[in-house]
Amino acid sequence: MSLKDKVPTLVDTAAQADIHAWRARESWRVFEIMAEFVEAAERLQPIQPAVSIFGSARTPQEHPYYKLTEQVARLLSDAGFSVISGGGPGIMEAANKGAFFGKSPSVGLNIQLPHEQSGNPYQDVSQSFRHFFARKVMFVKHATAYVVMPGGFGTLDELTEALTLIQTGKSRRIPIILVGSAFWGGMVDWFRNVLVTEKMIGPADMDLVQLIDDPKEIVDAIFKYYETRGFEMSPAEREMQFSL
């Protein structure tokens, strides 16, 4: 057998070794994920009740959306809610900043990315994640309400995941408030005129979201939702959280 005939075998052996090494690394990664969940769960337990605020990382400080977010977060913080954001710039920074100067904790769930996202300085509690899915679980798990400011794909991802979890009974029902009628109104109309009409969702699913523009009305809407039941989860809701 010539050397030329042996080359494919050598290449195949090297490729198989790479695959085995990758599989071994993938198996051990489970422990990294477990550690991430355990650390975050322990760290975030004391922050209840809390409101998760989402929005674009690209919003500059001088933008009206930034200032509105800061105002909403300050009102929530002074009303006794910890405020959770993604811990980065833009709307996330505005949310943390408003809460930081309020009465309740400002919480940042930071994601480690190759070229983006440095943590903002307005965080009383800062928890870092390597995995998006672990971070997203913590947003839902600890949220008494969602406040969704204008944003892009990431914001839509958080919004639609929360809607899906609640719709399918995988998560307890919480207020989901879209802030900015001019920004979100077209999407909500599409939900109603297309998704409901085409029977992709039920008419009652439209009750899962509210459009509110006024910061005080946002806080009032959250309190109104809980006024007859309190912020503590029921035993059934606590069990439901294990299915996230």
Question: Describe it for me?
Answer:
There is one protein chain. The mean pLDDT is 89. It contains 8 helices and 7 strands. Helix 2 runs parallel beside helix 3 and helix 2 packs parallel to helix 7. The longest helix has 42 residues. It is an alpha/beta fold and 244 residues long.
What does this entry show, briefly?
The protein has 244 residues and is α/β, with parallel strands linked by helices.
Write the layout of secondary structure elements.
Layout: H1 3-44, E1 50-54, H2 64-78, E2 82-85, H3 91-100, E3 106-111, E4 125-129, H4 132-141, E5 145-148, H5 153-167, E6 176-178, H6 181-196, E7 209-211, H7 215-226, H8 235-241
The number of helical runs is: 8
Strands across the major sheet, in which order?
4-3-2-1-5-6-7
Share of helix, binned:
40-55%
Q: Give a count of the beta strands, DSSP E runs of length 2 or more.
A: 7
What sort of overall outline do the alpha carbons produce when their principal axes are compared? globular
Distance between the termini: 58 Å
Strand content: 5-15%
Q: What keyword list fits this structure?
A:
244 residues; alpha/beta; 8 helices
